[in-house]
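Key result, reporting period 2: structure in, sequence out.
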């Protein structure tokens, strides 16, 4: 559906990406913009960035399952602006049918660390308690009752700067689901640049030129808010309202009762 978007880019292999983009400890900077801008944004990136290609495919389907406590401890920590915030998830690369457990920690210096462990397809079907061996290395010992809270689907384009250590991901039309609820942002792109130092981010300069400001609302928190009418989100209200306007409220497809 989106394959034509990456035509004309220099191709980057997964091996080359892994060799150059060792950004497990990095600054993550997020932006959102309407999908109507995506062609122009990509055109401006072709000279300086290469696109990840695997088996002649440059647009990849992702599925991410987020875990939290029944009280949404990790969501509440983010909403309260706590440092050392944690996201706990299982990521599936749908095209490759590979699965990883992941923990993302944002420390009090604003740096994001990501820890991951591969699991088999059979292991990926296990309940959250089966992953405690990995998750318990990073989360408080008092948290032992993790549950499946949110599933996120999207299509991703991954770009790497040709000379700088700078990776950009473009997540297209994210869909959030839990139980019988669903919210689809069909006209939204969530961009994230991953860099060692913010000052060297070419993508940030491009966003500034297009008058697009950085946003701090994570996909997990966006999904929780989108599917839960009663959740407190005062500190996210400005960000959430901007995302709804960017997507165009009439295009938000939701099954929320």
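The corresponding designed sequence is given below.
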């Amino acid at each position: 559906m989106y394959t034509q978007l990456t035509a004309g880019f220099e191709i980057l292999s997964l091996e080359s990406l892994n060799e150059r983009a060792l950004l497990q400890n990095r600054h993550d900077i997020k932006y959102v913009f309407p999908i109507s801008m995506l062609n122009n944004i990509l055109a401006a990136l072709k000279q300086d960035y290469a696109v990840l290609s695997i088996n002649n495919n440059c647009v990849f389907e992702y599925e991410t399952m987020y875990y939290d406590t029944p009280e949404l401890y990790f969501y509440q920590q983010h909403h309260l602006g706590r440092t050392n915030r944690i996201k706990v998830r299982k990521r599936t690369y749908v095209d490759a049918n590979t699965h990883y457990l992941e923990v993302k920690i944002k420390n009090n210096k604003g740096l994001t660390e990501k820890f991951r462990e591969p699991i088999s397809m059979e292991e990926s079907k296990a309940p959250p308690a089966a992953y405690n061996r990995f998750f318990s290395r990073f989360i408080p010992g008092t948290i032992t009752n993790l549950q499946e809270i949110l599933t996120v689907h999207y299509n991703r384009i991954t770009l790497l700067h040709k000379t700088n250590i700078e990776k950009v991901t473009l997540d297209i039309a994210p869909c959030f689901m839990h139980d019988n609820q669903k919210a689809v942002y069909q006209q939204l792109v969530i961009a994230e640049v991953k860099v060692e130092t913010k000052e060297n981010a070419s993508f940030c300069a491009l966003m500034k030129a297009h008058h697009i400001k950085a946003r701090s609302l994570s996909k997990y928190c966006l999904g929780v808010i989108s599917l839960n009418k009663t959740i407190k989100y005062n500190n996210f209200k400005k960000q959430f309202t901007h995302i709804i306007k960017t997507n165009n409220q009439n295009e938000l497809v939701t099954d929320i009762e």
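Residues 3-172+186-212 form a domain with the Hypothetical Protein Pfu-838710-001 fold (CATH 2.40.320.10). The chain has one domain: 3-172+186-212. This case is discussed further under Risks and Mitigation.
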